[in-house]
Amino acid sequence: MKNYEYHLVHIPRVLYTLRTIIILIVSIVIPITILMTFTYQVHSSFIIIFSLGIAFLLFKISSRYVRNHLYVIIKGDLLSIVETSTITQKKQERKLIGIT
Predict the structure, then answer these.
(1) Which residues of 74-92 are buried (b: 16+ CB within 10 A; e: fewer)?
(2) pLDDT of residue 39
(3) Which residues, listed in sequence order, are joined to residue 81 by a DSSP beta bridge?
């Protein structure tokens, strides 16, 4: 009997939502603190572009830390799923027997 192995990427909904909220908060707070520290006039277009740049960089940097790796192995009647978290490196293994 032939074995099938798959490697999948799973993004948990809770981590994705937390990541989005943190990125939004940071990209709003940093430009406001910059505005408060400078005494001279700063153009609003500069602040908007700066905050969008911060949000983009945080989104790209954090994208590889918010996913889990799933390894699915099918051997005959056995289905084995190994889930590895990229944040904690914790592995969870589930086996199902008798799938048809």
Answers:
(1) beeeebebebbbeeeeeee
(2) 61
(3) 72, 94
- Per residue in 31-63, pLDDT tens? 878 777 776 676 777 778 888 888 899 888 888
Q: Which of 66, 71, 93, 86 is nearest to 8 (CA)?
A: 71
Burial class (CB in 10 A: 0-12, 13-18, 19+), 14: exposed
pLDDT reading at 67 higher than 70: yes
Pairing of strands 3-10, 68-75: antiparallel
Q: Look-up: residue for tokens 């911060």? A: 54
Tell me the whole-structure pTM to 2 decimals. Answer: 0.63
**Backbone phi, psi, residue 62, to 5°:** -85, -5
Mean pLDDT value across the chain? 84
The pair phi, psi for residue 98, each rounded to 5°, is 85, 35
